[in-house]
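Incident log, structure service

09:12 report received: a user says their structure output differs between two submissions of the same chain.
09:20 pulled the input from the user's history:
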Amino acid sequence: MAQDINVPKYKMSPATKTVVWVCALVGLLTFLFGIYNNPERVWYSYLTSFFYFTSLSLCGLFFVAINHITNAGWSVNLRRVPEAFTAFLPYVLVGAIVLIIGADFIYPWLNPEIVAVDTLIQKKVSYLNEGFFIFRVIAFILLWLLFAKKIVGNSLKQDETGDVNLTHKNLALSVGFIVVFALSYSLFSVDTLMSVDPHWFSTIFGVYAFAGLFQSGLAMMILFILALKAGYLKSFINDDHIHDMGKFLFGFTIFYAYIAFSQYLLIWYANLPEETIFYIHRSHGGWEWVSLSLLFGKFIIPFLALAPAWAKKKAGHLKVVCVWVLIMQYVDFYWLVYPNLHTNTNGMFPETPIFNFYEIGIFLGFLGLFLFAVNKFLEKNSLIPIKDPRLHESMHHHL
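09:34 re-ran on a clean worker, output below:
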């Protein structure tokens, strides 16, 4: 059957190339300007965007693994998009090294003077120390890279050989990845995000981060899939594929709300000062409006926008919802990181949330690198897995 399929060869458009390089250049210039003029602010912005795009890349691998484990046939025609997201993981490794260089500006537990007078941090020093932090962050990313190389590599190899055993190998690899991912991403989110405030802790913070990862990752996947459906893959992707992806996004919008409420409820009910301080920081000085924006922007608005069946099929409507979800995911990570910006240096809360060209510029820089990595992957490889044994099922997928 593979010989009967003529898959168009993807080519990055000149407009896309221009956007990629302009975004990357803006990001680099913003970062360099900020390093000399406002280093702490620029490192906070860097951390926010770094974690944002790391999560998008990992969501691609997670989605691929879940579909292998469940032997899903419907999604085969869509699989190259999430596989392409993993092409950003090498940039994540480089980005982590850069983050480590600026870690002193972000994490107060790296400051010996603060640790010397803070008994709470002293109790956590066996875990929160520079050497162990670097080891964990690099080790986690290397593990993700290894699984991505194996799982995506087998998928690409099957395009050439048609070996069905590669599908079985990816099933086993995907099971292993899910186990590793559950632990490593939870700890990675604790290390890079939660430890910005080393006094605070949440037992389900890793699950909260994952909920955002999958909601935003699905939104980004849908945008790429819709773009390909409108052109290169219009004969391979139908409305039912889009409907299924829309249902995924709708479901994980509800899942995010459930986890966010659960975290709040657990902390409110326990009423421990080292936990409640997180929400106290985010209910004063203008941060209460950011907190409310997450309730409406990450749950109520997308929930209502995706509830009707037609909303999960109509391309124009779905694009708007996906862009909205991606914007709100950045707001979510911003809300997690930025209230600590002043509290870590002078013990005071920022009067109002700060957002200007530092945040926009560095986000655009990461966006440019992400688009470059994904588009290059799609250029080098077939847009669909042409010799996957479940391809026929995906080609004729109907609800």
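09:41 both user submissions now match this output. Likely a transient worker issue. Closing.
09:42 reviewer note: The mean pLDDT is 94. The chain has one domain: 37-375.
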